[in-house]
Amino acid sequence: MPIPVEMPKMSDTMEEGVLVAWLAEEGDAVSSGDIIAQVETDKATMDLEVYDDGVLLKKVIPEGAAVPIGGLIAVLGKAGEDISGLLAGYDGAAGVPAEAPAAETVAPDTPAPSTGDGAVQPTAPEVVSGTASAGNDGRIKSSPLARSLAKEHGIALHQIAGSGPEGRIVKRDIEAAIRKHAPAPGVAPGYPVPGTMIEMPAEDVSETVRISQMRKTIARRLSESKFTSPHFYLTVDVDVEQAVAARARINKQAEAAGGVKISFNDLVTKACALALRAHPAVNASWIEQEGVIRQHGHAHVAVAVAIDDGLVTPVIRHADRKGLTQIATETRELAQRARDRTLQPEDWEGSTFTTSNLGMYGVEEFTAIINPPNACILAIGAIRDEAVVKEGAVVPGKRMKLTLSSDHRVVDGAVAAAFIGTVRSYLEEPLSMLL
What we know:
The structure is a single chain. The protein has nine helices and 18 strands. It has helices at 84-90, 144-153, 171-180, 213-228, 241-257, 264-278, 324-339, 345-348, 413-428; strands spanning 3-6, 16-22, 29-30, 35-40, 45-49, 54-59, 66-68, 72-77, 231-239, 284-287, 292-295, 301-303, 305-307, 310-312, 315-316, 353-357, 376-390, 393-407. It has a six-stranded mixed beta sheet, covered by helices on one side. Strands 1-8-6-3 form a four-stranded antiparallel beta sheet, with no helix packed on it. The longest helix is centred in the middle third of the chain and has 17 residues, at 241-257. It is elongated, with a radius of gyration of 27 Å.
Protein backbone atom coordinates (compact mmCIF):
# COMPACT_ATOMS: atom_id res chain seq x y z
CA MET A 1 0.00 0.00 0.00
CA PRO A 2 1.22 3.59 -0.59
CA ILE A 3 3.18 5.25 2.21
CA PRO A 4 2.59 8.95 3.05
CA VAL A 5 5.57 11.19 3.81
CA GLU A 6 4.34 13.94 6.14
CA MET A 7 5.92 17.16 7.42
CA PRO A 8 7.64 16.22 10.70
CA LYS A 9 8.00 18.45 13.76
CA MET A 10 11.67 19.40 13.51
CA SER A 11 11.82 21.79 16.47
CA ASP A 12 9.90 22.46 19.64
CA THR A 13 8.51 25.73 18.25
CA MET A 14 7.88 24.66 14.66
CA GLU A 15 4.32 24.92 13.30
CA GLU A 16 5.03 24.63 9.59
CA GLY A 17 7.97 24.18 7.26
CA VAL A 18 8.86 25.50 3.81
CA LEU A 19 10.00 22.90 1.29
CA VAL A 20 13.13 24.61 -0.03
CA ALA A 21 14.35 22.05 -2.57
CA TRP A 22 13.56 18.57 -3.81
CA LEU A 23 16.60 16.28 -3.91
CA ALA A 24 14.79 13.33 -5.50
CA GLU A 25 12.51 12.96 -8.49
CA GLU A 26 9.31 11.03 -9.05
CA GLY A 27 10.17 7.48 -10.08
CA ASP A 28 13.38 7.37 -8.03
CA ALA A 29 13.89 4.35 -5.78
CA VAL A 30 14.63 5.44 -2.20
CA SER A 31 15.65 3.59 0.94
CA SER A 32 15.13 4.26 4.63
CA GLY A 33 17.48 7.07 5.67
CA ASP A 34 17.70 8.66 2.21
CA ILE A 35 17.28 12.44 2.06
CA ILE A 36 14.64 13.48 -0.45
CA ALA A 37 14.24 17.21 0.26
CA GLN A 38 15.38 20.19 2.30
CA VAL A 39 12.98 21.97 4.65
CA GLU A 40 13.30 25.45 6.14
CA THR A 41 12.08 25.50 9.74
CA ASP A 42 11.92 28.39 12.19
CA LYS A 43 15.49 27.59 13.28
CA ALA A 44 17.44 26.16 10.35
CA THR A 45 17.31 24.49 6.95
CA MET A 46 17.21 20.75 7.61
CA ASP A 47 17.25 17.53 5.61
CA LEU A 48 14.03 15.56 5.18
CA GLU A 49 14.69 11.84 5.21
CA VAL A 50 12.37 8.93 4.60
CA TYR A 51 11.95 5.96 6.92
CA ASP A 52 10.69 3.40 4.41
CA ASP A 53 11.91 1.76 1.21
CA GLY A 54 10.02 2.30 -2.02
CA VAL A 55 9.62 4.42 -5.12
CA LEU A 56 8.88 8.14 -4.93
CA LEU A 57 5.48 8.00 -6.61
CA LYS A 58 4.47 11.64 -6.20
CA LYS A 59 5.90 14.93 -5.02
CA VAL A 60 2.79 16.55 -3.59
CA ILE A 61 4.31 19.89 -2.62
CA PRO A 62 6.17 22.31 -4.91
CA GLU A 63 9.39 24.00 -3.88
CA GLY A 64 8.74 27.18 -1.93
CA ALA A 65 5.43 25.99 -0.43
CA ALA A 66 4.74 26.12 3.31
CA VAL A 67 3.40 22.89 4.82
CA PRO A 68 1.89 22.53 8.31
CA ILE A 69 3.12 19.77 10.60
CA GLY A 70 1.44 16.54 9.51
CA GLY A 71 0.76 17.86 6.01
CA LEU A 72 1.38 15.48 3.12
CA ILE A 73 4.66 16.11 1.29
CA ALA A 74 5.16 13.03 -0.86
CA VAL A 75 3.97 9.48 -1.45
CA LEU A 76 6.13 6.35 -1.55
CA GLY A 77 5.10 2.91 -2.74
CA LYS A 78 5.52 0.34 -5.47
CA ALA A 79 5.95 1.45 -9.07
CA GLY A 80 2.55 1.88 -10.75
CA GLU A 81 0.63 1.66 -7.47
CA ASP A 82 -2.69 3.54 -7.24
CA ILE A 83 -2.38 6.43 -4.75
CA SER A 84 -5.67 8.21 -5.45
CA GLY A 85 -7.27 6.94 -2.25
CA LEU A 86 -4.42 8.20 -0.10
CA LEU A 87 -4.39 11.60 -1.80
CA ALA A 88 -8.13 11.97 -1.30
CA GLY A 89 -7.63 11.55 2.43
CA TYR A 90 -5.25 14.49 2.58
CA ASP A 91 -6.55 16.92 -0.03
CA GLY A 92 -7.87 19.90 1.91
CA ALA A 93 -7.81 18.11 5.27
CA ALA A 94 -4.19 18.97 5.94
CA GLY A 95 -4.35 22.37 4.31
CA VAL A 96 -1.88 21.25 1.66
CA PRO A 97 -2.41 21.40 -2.11
CA ALA A 98 -2.66 17.96 -3.66
CA GLU A 99 -1.22 19.22 -6.92
CA ALA A 100 1.79 21.49 -7.43
CA PRO A 101 0.87 24.72 -9.22
CA ALA A 102 1.74 24.97 -12.87
CA ALA A 103 5.16 26.39 -13.61
CA GLU A 104 5.07 30.14 -14.17
CA THR A 105 7.23 30.09 -17.27
CA VAL A 106 6.77 31.64 -20.68
CA ALA A 107 7.96 30.01 -23.87
CA PRO A 108 10.41 32.14 -25.85
CA ASP A 109 9.06 34.22 -28.72
CA THR A 110 5.51 34.04 -27.32
CA PRO A 111 3.58 36.95 -28.89
CA ALA A 112 2.08 39.51 -26.55
CA PRO A 113 -1.72 39.27 -26.21
CA SER A 114 -3.86 41.65 -28.24
CA THR A 115 -6.36 44.04 -26.68
CA GLY A 116 -8.83 43.39 -29.50
CA ASP A 117 -8.49 46.76 -31.19
CA GLY A 118 -5.24 46.00 -32.95
CA ALA A 119 -3.09 47.28 -30.10
CA VAL A 120 -0.77 45.00 -28.26
CA GLN A 121 -1.38 44.54 -24.55
CA PRO A 122 1.90 45.16 -22.71
CA THR A 123 3.11 42.36 -20.49
CA ALA A 124 5.46 42.33 -17.54
CA PRO A 125 9.02 41.57 -18.63
CA GLU A 126 9.63 37.85 -18.24
CA VAL A 127 13.30 36.90 -18.19
CA VAL A 128 12.75 33.43 -19.57
CA SER A 129 14.19 32.10 -22.81
CA GLY A 130 15.65 28.93 -24.22
CA THR A 131 18.96 27.84 -22.69
CA ALA A 132 20.83 24.71 -21.80
CA SER A 133 18.43 24.29 -18.86
CA ALA A 134 15.34 24.62 -21.05
CA GLY A 135 13.10 21.68 -21.83
CA ASN A 136 12.12 20.41 -25.24
CA ASP A 137 9.32 22.97 -25.42
CA GLY A 138 11.75 25.84 -24.80
CA ARG A 139 10.55 26.49 -21.25
CA ILE A 140 13.17 27.08 -18.58
CA LYS A 141 13.11 24.54 -15.79
CA SER A 142 13.04 26.41 -12.47
CA SER A 143 11.42 26.13 -9.07
CA PRO A 144 8.73 28.62 -7.96
CA LEU A 145 11.02 29.94 -5.20
CA ALA A 146 13.88 30.43 -7.67
CA ARG A 147 11.62 32.36 -10.04
CA SER A 148 10.38 34.55 -7.21
CA LEU A 149 13.91 35.38 -6.05
CA ALA A 150 15.07 36.03 -9.62
CA LYS A 151 12.19 38.42 -10.26
CA GLU A 152 12.79 40.20 -6.93
CA HIS A 153 16.47 40.82 -7.75
CA GLY A 154 16.07 41.45 -11.48
CA ILE A 155 18.02 38.37 -12.54
CA ALA A 156 17.39 36.83 -15.97
CA LEU A 157 16.83 33.10 -15.67
CA HIS A 158 18.30 32.41 -19.10
CA GLN A 159 21.67 33.58 -17.74
CA ILE A 160 21.67 31.03 -14.91
CA ALA A 161 23.06 27.50 -15.09
CA GLY A 162 20.78 25.27 -13.05
CA SER A 163 22.29 22.83 -10.55
CA GLY A 164 19.07 20.92 -9.86
CA PRO A 165 17.94 17.68 -11.45
CA GLU A 166 18.15 17.85 -15.28
CA GLY A 167 19.58 21.37 -15.06
CA ARG A 168 16.65 22.80 -13.13
CA ILE A 169 17.28 26.23 -11.60
CA VAL A 170 16.75 26.15 -7.83
CA LYS A 171 17.07 28.62 -4.96
CA ARG A 172 20.80 28.12 -4.42
CA ASP A 173 21.52 29.04 -8.05
CA ILE A 174 19.75 32.39 -7.69
CA GLU A 175 21.46 33.07 -4.36
CA ALA A 176 24.83 32.43 -6.00
CA ALA A 177 23.96 34.90 -8.75
CA ILE A 178 22.92 37.49 -6.16
CA ARG A 179 26.25 37.12 -4.36
CA LYS A 180 28.12 37.35 -7.66
CA HIS A 181 26.49 40.68 -8.49
CA ALA A 182 26.78 42.10 -4.95
CA PRO A 183 28.39 45.57 -4.66
CA ALA A 184 32.19 45.63 -4.54
CA PRO A 185 33.82 45.96 -1.10
CA GLY A 186 33.69 49.52 0.12
CA VAL A 187 30.65 50.42 -2.01
CA ALA A 188 27.44 50.69 -0.04
CA PRO A 189 24.46 48.77 -1.49
CA GLY A 190 22.26 51.04 -3.55
CA TYR A 191 25.07 53.49 -4.38
CA PRO A 192 26.94 53.67 -7.69
CA VAL A 193 30.63 53.16 -8.15
CA PRO A 194 32.37 56.57 -8.02
CA GLY A 195 32.50 58.20 -11.44
CA THR A 196 29.30 56.65 -12.78
CA MET A 197 26.11 58.51 -13.74
CA ILE A 198 23.43 58.62 -11.04
CA GLU A 199 19.91 57.93 -12.26
CA MET A 200 17.35 59.28 -9.82
CA PRO A 201 14.13 57.28 -9.44
CA ALA A 202 10.92 58.96 -10.44
CA GLU A 203 9.41 58.08 -7.07
CA ASP A 204 10.16 56.09 -3.96
CA VAL A 205 9.69 52.35 -4.44
CA SER A 206 8.54 50.12 -1.59
CA GLU A 207 9.77 46.57 -1.25
CA THR A 208 7.88 43.56 0.07
CA VAL A 209 10.13 41.12 1.90
CA ARG A 210 9.19 37.46 2.22
CA ILE A 211 8.88 36.45 5.88
CA SER A 212 11.00 33.44 6.75
CA GLN A 213 9.80 30.66 9.04
CA MET A 214 12.27 31.92 11.64
CA ARG A 215 10.91 35.48 11.53
CA LYS A 216 7.32 34.20 11.79
CA THR A 217 8.21 32.20 14.90
CA ILE A 218 10.16 35.09 16.45
CA ALA A 219 7.16 37.38 15.95
CA ARG A 220 4.72 34.89 17.43
CA ARG A 221 6.78 33.73 20.42
CA LEU A 222 8.02 37.16 21.48
CA SER A 223 4.53 38.64 21.15
CA GLU A 224 3.20 35.85 23.35
CA SER A 225 6.02 36.40 25.84
CA LYS A 226 5.66 40.18 26.03
CA PHE A 227 1.88 40.18 26.41
CA THR A 228 1.53 37.00 28.50
CA SER A 229 4.48 37.20 30.89
CA PRO A 230 4.35 40.22 33.22
CA HIS A 231 7.87 41.60 32.69
CA PHE A 232 9.75 43.72 35.20
CA TYR A 233 13.31 45.00 34.91
CA LEU A 234 16.27 45.51 37.22
CA THR A 235 19.49 47.26 36.16
CA VAL A 236 22.85 47.22 37.94
CA ASP A 237 26.09 49.01 37.06
CA VAL A 238 29.03 46.62 37.40
CA ASP A 239 32.69 47.43 38.04
CA VAL A 240 34.37 45.15 35.47
CA GLU A 241 37.95 46.39 35.81
CA GLN A 242 39.12 43.14 37.41
CA ALA A 243 37.16 41.02 34.94
CA VAL A 244 38.74 42.84 31.99
CA ALA A 245 42.20 42.37 33.50
CA ALA A 246 41.55 38.68 34.22
CA ARG A 247 40.37 38.10 30.66
CA ALA A 248 43.51 39.75 29.29
CA ARG A 249 45.74 37.47 31.41
CA ILE A 250 43.80 34.33 30.44
CA ASN A 251 43.97 35.21 26.73
CA LYS A 252 47.68 35.99 26.91
CA GLN A 253 48.30 32.51 28.29
CA ALA A 254 45.94 30.97 25.73
CA GLU A 255 47.74 32.72 22.88
CA ALA A 256 51.12 31.48 24.09
CA ALA A 257 49.78 27.93 24.33
CA GLY A 258 47.86 28.08 21.06
CA GLY A 259 44.56 27.74 22.90
CA VAL A 260 41.13 29.33 22.57
CA LYS A 261 40.70 32.91 23.72
CA ILE A 262 37.68 33.81 25.84
CA SER A 263 35.32 36.72 25.31
CA PHE A 264 33.76 38.87 27.98
CA ASN A 265 30.46 37.23 27.09
CA ASP A 266 31.95 33.88 28.16
CA LEU A 267 32.66 35.36 31.60
CA VAL A 268 29.04 36.52 31.85
CA THR A 269 27.77 33.07 30.80
CA LYS A 270 29.80 31.44 33.55
CA ALA A 271 28.73 34.02 36.14
CA CYS A 272 25.04 33.53 35.25
CA ALA A 273 25.33 29.73 35.41
CA LEU A 274 26.87 29.85 38.88
CA ALA A 275 24.26 32.37 40.03
CA LEU A 276 21.47 30.09 38.74
CA ARG A 277 22.82 27.32 40.93
CA ALA A 278 22.72 29.66 43.92
CA HIS A 279 19.21 30.97 43.11
CA PRO A 280 17.01 28.04 41.95
CA ALA A 281 13.89 30.25 41.98
CA VAL A 282 15.32 32.12 38.96
CA ASN A 283 16.34 28.90 37.22
CA ALA A 284 12.67 28.08 36.65
CA SER A 285 9.77 28.06 34.18
CA TRP A 286 6.05 28.78 34.36
CA ILE A 287 4.21 25.66 33.11
CA GLU A 288 0.76 26.92 32.12
CA GLN A 289 -0.63 23.51 31.13
CA GLU A 290 0.12 21.97 34.51
CA GLY A 291 -0.41 25.08 36.63
CA VAL A 292 3.00 24.76 38.28
CA ILE A 293 6.41 26.41 38.46
CA ARG A 294 9.20 24.03 37.52
CA GLN A 295 12.62 24.66 39.06
CA HIS A 296 15.34 23.06 36.95
CA GLY A 297 18.13 20.94 38.38
CA HIS A 298 20.61 22.06 35.72
CA ALA A 299 21.92 25.39 34.45
CA HIS A 300 21.57 25.47 30.66
CA VAL A 301 22.40 28.99 29.47
CA ALA A 302 21.21 30.07 26.00
CA VAL A 303 23.29 32.70 24.20
CA ALA A 304 21.44 34.90 21.69
CA VAL A 305 23.13 34.90 18.27
CA ALA A 306 22.10 37.33 15.51
CA ILE A 307 21.89 35.90 11.99
CA ASP A 308 20.46 37.25 8.74
CA ASP A 309 16.92 35.99 9.34
CA GLY A 310 16.66 36.96 13.00
CA LEU A 311 17.85 35.57 16.29
CA VAL A 312 18.63 32.05 17.49
CA THR A 313 19.58 30.94 20.98
CA PRO A 314 21.93 27.94 21.04
CA VAL A 315 22.44 26.45 24.49
CA ILE A 316 25.56 25.91 26.61
CA ARG A 317 24.50 22.91 28.70
CA HIS A 318 25.65 22.55 32.30
CA ALA A 319 27.53 25.83 31.98
CA ASP A 320 28.05 25.92 35.75
CA ARG A 321 30.23 22.79 35.50
CA LYS A 322 32.35 23.93 32.56
CA GLY A 323 35.52 25.97 32.45
CA LEU A 324 35.79 29.26 30.60
CA THR A 325 37.79 27.75 27.75
CA GLN A 326 35.18 25.04 27.17
CA ILE A 327 32.37 27.61 27.27
CA ALA A 328 34.27 29.78 24.77
CA THR A 329 34.86 26.84 22.41
CA GLU A 330 31.23 25.67 22.47
CA THR A 331 29.86 29.19 22.07
CA ARG A 332 31.94 29.85 18.96
CA GLU A 333 31.09 26.52 17.40
CA LEU A 334 27.36 26.98 18.03
CA ALA A 335 27.42 30.58 16.77
CA GLN A 336 29.10 29.51 13.53
CA ARG A 337 26.65 26.68 13.02
CA ALA A 338 23.80 29.12 13.67
CA ARG A 339 25.11 31.42 10.91
CA ASP A 340 25.52 28.41 8.61
CA ARG A 341 21.95 27.31 9.43
CA THR A 342 23.17 23.84 10.47
CA LEU A 343 21.99 23.81 14.09
CA GLN A 344 20.06 20.74 15.19
CA PRO A 345 17.12 20.72 17.65
CA GLU A 346 19.32 19.53 20.52
CA ASP A 347 21.46 22.65 20.03
CA TRP A 348 18.67 25.11 20.85
CA GLU A 349 16.21 23.21 23.06
CA GLY A 350 16.18 22.95 26.84
CA SER A 351 17.57 26.32 27.98
CA THR A 352 16.76 27.53 31.50
CA PHE A 353 18.14 31.08 31.16
CA THR A 354 19.18 33.37 28.29
CA THR A 355 21.72 36.15 27.78
CA SER A 356 21.63 38.80 25.05
CA ASN A 357 24.67 41.00 24.40
CA LEU A 358 24.52 44.21 22.35
CA GLY A 359 27.63 45.69 23.90
CA MET A 360 29.69 45.05 20.78
CA TYR A 361 27.38 47.49 18.96
CA GLY A 362 28.06 50.25 21.46
CA VAL A 363 24.69 49.85 23.21
CA GLU A 364 25.16 50.76 26.87
CA GLU A 365 21.78 49.64 28.21
CA PHE A 366 18.65 47.90 26.93
CA THR A 367 15.82 45.61 28.01
CA ALA A 368 15.30 42.19 26.44
CA ILE A 369 12.10 40.19 26.00
CA ILE A 370 12.05 36.90 27.91
CA ASN A 371 12.74 33.78 25.85
CA PRO A 372 10.00 31.26 26.78
CA PRO A 373 9.91 29.02 28.72
CA ASN A 374 12.70 30.80 30.66
CA ALA A 375 11.70 33.01 33.57
CA CYS A 376 14.50 35.55 32.97
CA ILE A 377 16.86 36.99 30.37
CA LEU A 378 19.94 39.14 30.98
CA ALA A 379 20.71 42.11 28.68
CA ILE A 380 24.43 42.92 28.54
CA GLY A 381 25.59 46.43 27.67
CA ALA A 382 28.91 47.82 26.46
CA ILE A 383 31.94 48.22 28.71
CA ARG A 384 32.45 51.95 29.35
CA ASP A 385 35.64 53.80 30.24
CA GLU A 386 34.77 56.52 32.72
CA ALA A 387 35.94 58.32 35.83
CA VAL A 388 35.01 56.61 39.10
CA VAL A 389 35.59 57.42 42.75
CA LYS A 390 37.71 54.91 44.70
CA GLU A 391 38.90 55.55 48.24
CA GLY A 392 38.02 59.21 47.89
CA ALA A 393 39.96 59.75 44.65
CA VAL A 394 38.74 60.10 41.08
CA VAL A 395 40.43 57.42 38.95
CA PRO A 396 39.87 55.75 35.55
CA GLY A 397 37.43 52.86 35.68
CA LYS A 398 35.55 50.36 33.56
CA ARG A 399 31.81 49.92 34.04
CA MET A 400 29.07 47.87 32.41
CA LYS A 401 25.30 47.81 32.83
CA LEU A 402 23.32 44.58 33.15
CA THR A 403 19.52 44.55 32.93
CA LEU A 404 17.54 41.52 34.08
CA SER A 405 14.07 40.98 32.60
CA SER A 406 11.98 38.71 34.85
CA ASP A 407 8.60 37.01 34.63
CA HIS A 408 6.77 38.21 37.75
CA ARG A 409 4.64 35.05 37.79
CA VAL A 410 7.79 33.11 38.66
CA VAL A 411 10.29 35.55 40.13
CA ASP A 412 9.67 38.25 42.71
CA GLY A 413 11.59 41.50 42.85
CA ALA A 414 13.73 40.61 45.85
CA VAL A 415 14.68 37.24 44.31
CA ALA A 416 15.65 38.88 41.03
CA ALA A 417 17.67 41.51 42.90
CA ALA A 418 19.55 38.83 44.82
CA PHE A 419 20.31 36.94 41.61
CA ILE A 420 21.65 39.90 39.65
CA GLY A 421 23.63 40.89 42.73
CA THR A 422 25.32 37.49 42.68
CA VAL A 423 26.12 37.86 38.97
CA ARG A 424 27.65 41.26 39.70
CA SER A 425 29.76 39.88 42.55
CA TYR A 426 31.19 37.14 40.31
CA LEU A 427 32.14 39.67 37.63
CA GLU A 428 33.64 42.10 40.12
CA GLU A 429 35.63 39.27 41.73
CA PRO A 430 36.24 36.94 38.76
CA LEU A 431 38.65 34.73 40.72
CA SER A 432 35.63 33.53 42.72
CA MET A 433 34.29 31.85 39.58
CA LEU A 434 37.37 29.66 39.39
CA LEU A 435 37.25 28.44 43.01
